[in-house]
Amino acid sequence: MLAMAIFLATLVLVIWQPRRLGIGWSAMGGALLALLTGVVGWADVPVVWDIVWDATFTFVALIIISLLLDEAGFFTWAALHVARWGGGNGRRLFPLIVLLGAFIAAFFANDGAALLLTPIVMAILLRLDFSAGATLAFIVACGFVADTTSLPLVISNLVNIVSANYFGIGFDRYAAVMVPVNLVALAATLAVLWAYYGRQVPATYRTDQLEQPATAIRDPLVFRVAFPLLAVLLLAYFVLAPLGVPVAAVTGAAALVLLALAGRWHGGGRGGVVPVRKVLAGAPWQIVIFSLGMYLVVYGLRNAGMTDYLAAALVWLAGHGLWIATIGTGFGAALLSSVMNNMPGVLVGALAIEQAQGIPPAIREAMIYANVIGCDLGPKFTPIGSLATLLWLHVLASKGTTITWGQYMKVGLAITPPVLLAVLAALALWLPVVGAP
């Protein structure tokens, strides 16, 4: 009960953020309380740090890369191209925006897709004179696709990195399993979003009010480097990860290269166009403290024996075959993430899977990926399911668009279950095809 009380108090502070208290300090306060009360021991600190450090610094590096490219005009350039490719047809523009969100989520993580793309799309729709209903349809599509298609690569979601590192899944093996599954997630997301919002999408729109994409480029050098850098970075993941090089080291090296280019010095002592100090200040450094603190609090639940109950439930599910185990684990992880946030949720699920005894290897692997899927998609049930969603709602409010928790849950509860079911079914079908690792 003490471990649960500390966890709930920490979670409330993280979500509430009284007096703008940083999420890292709230989580670390909970961790210190857990240490002082004996819920976790000092010996648990290096164990938890070993779980979270690679994922945390990879995430920070990805966000720095995203912010640098955003300041250089990369994402606005891409969105303007997509708006022009729509050719004045709203029903063509909608899936193109969804595809752009999926691309950004794959390479820049779900947070980058939701937080960077949404304001850009809003600004473009404002120029196109879209109605409030049509604008809301595109906005929700941006926020939704950011999470539902954050499955394909280890780097696509912090949840993916934590789980892959915890179970020692290689970058290539993870991609072999999840890239095809993510294609199903994309198709299901587009179908469900269209069924829900299709009537609000305008049939036509004017393109003569759109700027030329080239006008969005503020730093030509950083912009030109973007595509080759991403290609080299992706190749490096596949080549270096099997050699034991941490994902954080690869991503961090790419971030340093981009920082060096963005902060270059010209004659006369003038720096580059991209404000490097602003980017570094805007990086999510609090997530480093948050990850260690929150996972220590969650580890307290494990020490108190609470994950034993989940492990027993997983054993029961495994006894009913691959399909029941996959779908049951995925929906369980989704529900857990929706009420306790997906960051602690993925570790609780991973601990329970590790503790579950006697599960066949094939079903155990399915549960590992189902836990990831549930924790990637489950946050869409409620606003508190992920910090990215809370920040996304805050960004929308700052732009004059307010979505209440009731409105959000009405959409989330209608859209998420069919997509989640389709993705888990795809996993159950694909795993036997791809075979054992």
Low-confidence stretches: 265-270
- Counting DSSP E segments of at least 2 residues, the number of strands comes to 0
The biggest beta sheet, please? Answer: none
Number of helices: 18
Rounded to the nearest angstrom, the radius of gyration is 21 Å
- How far is the first residue's CA from the last residue's CA? 39 Å
> What is the overall shape?
globular
What is the mean pLDDT?
Answer: 87
Helicity range: over 70%
Describe this structure in words.
By secondary structure, the chain is mainly α. The chain contains 18 helices and no strands. The protein has helices spanning 2-16, 23-36, 44-72, 74-85, 90-127, 132-148, 158-167, 171-197, 220-240, 247-262, 276-282, 286-303, 306-318, 322-340, 342-355, 361-377, 387-398, 405-434. Helix 13 (306-318) packs across helix 15 (342-355) and helix 16 packs antiparallel against helix 18 (405-434). The longest helix has 38 residues, at 90-127. The protein is globular.
